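Module 6 notes. Inverse folding takes a fixed backbone as the condition and produces residue identities as the prediction. Think of it as a translation problem where the source language is geometry and the target language is the twenty amino acids. Below is one complete input and output pair. Work through it position by position during the lab.
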């Protein structure tokens, strides 16, 4: 499989000193941390999610699990901050900045089209 256009870290190597078994252990620790009813340690979760990114990509690329199963394996991706971080890891772009820039561009295009439509209608009315 090849990376898509915007994917920077398509299938990275495991971090130095880690193998699939150690990363799987970290994944299970994140799952347990996420299950806590009280305050979750977001900093710890974020650090571990960064560490196990290569495992997550490997699972995603090789098995393409359904979304429900994927979120069972990686429950921290239900956290807004982790969605942003994951987007950054994969594309090396900031999701909110990218989204708002594209949104502003879309708004400008819509505004220009509305302005042209109004001008057209005004011209037609004058006929």
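Target side of the pair, the amino acids:
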């Amino acid at each position: 499989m090849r990376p898509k256009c915007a994917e920077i870290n398509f299938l990275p190597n495991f971090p130095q000193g880690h193998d699939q078994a150690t990363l799987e252990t970290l994944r299970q620790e994140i799952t347990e941390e996420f299950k806590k009813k009280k305050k979750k340690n977001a900093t710890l979760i974020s650090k571990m999610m960064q560490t196990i990114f290569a495992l997550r990509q490997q699972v995603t690329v090789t098995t393409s699990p359904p979304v429900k199963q994927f979120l069972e394996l990686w429950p921290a991706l239900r956290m807004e901050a982790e969605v942003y971080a994951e987007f950054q890891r994969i594309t090396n772009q900031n999701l909110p900045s990218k989204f708002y820039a594209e949104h502003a561009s879309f708004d400008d295009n819509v505004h220009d089209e509305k302005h042209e439509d109004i001008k057209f209608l005004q011209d037609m009315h004058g006929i």
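Reference fact for the lab report: The chain is about 70% helix and 0% strand.
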